[in-house]
Amino acid sequence: MNSLLEYLPPADGLLPKWIFFISIVSLGNSIQAYLSLGPTQKVYCGTRSVPAGVPASTVPNPSPVTPLSARTFGTWTAITAIVRLYAAYNINSKPMYELAFWTYIVAFAHFMSEWLVFGSTRWGKGLAGPAIVATTSMIWMYSQWNYYVKA
After folding, report:
1. Where are the domains of the chain?
2. Between the CA of residue 63 and those of 1, 13, 37, 112, 113, what are the distances in Å?
3. Model-level pTM?
4. Scanning 55, 68, 128, 142, which has its CA 20 to 30 A from the CA of 77?
């Protein structure tokens, strides 16, 4: 029986393994988005205005997530996961590296605009994970560009 480690990207360094890990987690998130609204509603939680003296638990969930938007988000997440998975195994390919890098830029721009412009989310547990992953990955990929990308 093969070891699970044999399936990890063969390239040196931790970046390809990180990208691989994030891809697997993202595929799980995609499946989750199709099965339940709950996880996507935690990310896109809306802005909850609770009047003074009113218990927060009595205010309706302001999340703008619908079944369709959750599935759309799941599909978008699956596509980015597939691109990143290919990049993890082809980390020295400039086009694959660039495509993966762009997925993190687009994700970062999306989540920040949903928070700061559109108000469909707020800073908290649901937004922190995607924001930290996108930011960390962008910085890491940018800083390691010349190490991995072979012209």
Report:
1. 13-47+60-148
2. 46, 40, 10, 16, 16
3. 0.86
4. 142
